[in-house]
Design a protein that fits this description.
The protein is an all-alpha fold. It has two domains: 45 residues, Arc Repressor Mutant, subunit A, CATH 1.10.10; 125 residues, Tetracycline Repressor, domain 2 (Orthogonal Bundle). Helix 5 runs antiparallel to helix 7, helix 7 packs across helix 8 and helix 8 runs antiparallel to helix 9. It is elongated, with a radius of gyration of 19 Å. The chain starts with 13 loop residues before the first helix and ends with a helix.
Amino acid sequence: MAPRTPTGAAVLQPGITKAITEAVLDELAEQGYARLSMEAVAKRARVSRSALYRRWPSKQEMALSVISEFSVALAVVPDTGSLRGDLRASLDALMEWLTHPRFARILPDLVAETARNPELGEFSKAMIGVPRRELATVMFQRAIERGELPADTDLELALDLVAAPVYWRLIVRAEEAGPDYLDRLADTVLRAIGA
């Protein structure tokens, strides 16, 4: 028998949460973090502001919770049986994340905002950066276990070598990063970390 919801407890309906999540992403993409408001999200989602406050106590927690859920879900690290295959699949997933129609507009604004707001930066790192890096670390740990990488591989540096060139190329330089670029990047990363 399923446990009963306590009397008086708020029941968070998944359909409403999904509408709010979509509204948050749309508002962030269109208005940016600084102009994001609980009121605008509620209006777009066609819910009351109390529906938002039942889920998150503040704009910051709402925005980063939604971005984190979206971002961590796209941090795919399949086990292809080889580091080269895993790395290439991870680069494809990274591209999907960074080029997503809404997120490609959200990320540059969020990065700029975190430079002005250290608390937001720490919160962003904890909710997005750390979970994504933890998932990607598994790829390198598997490679060490398979004997494809030395046991003393600098995992922090390896993680930076995977993500930084793609971010720099797409976000900073506004250049394409097609399959050929990702193939060359994968091979360069493998050489750099001694695979």
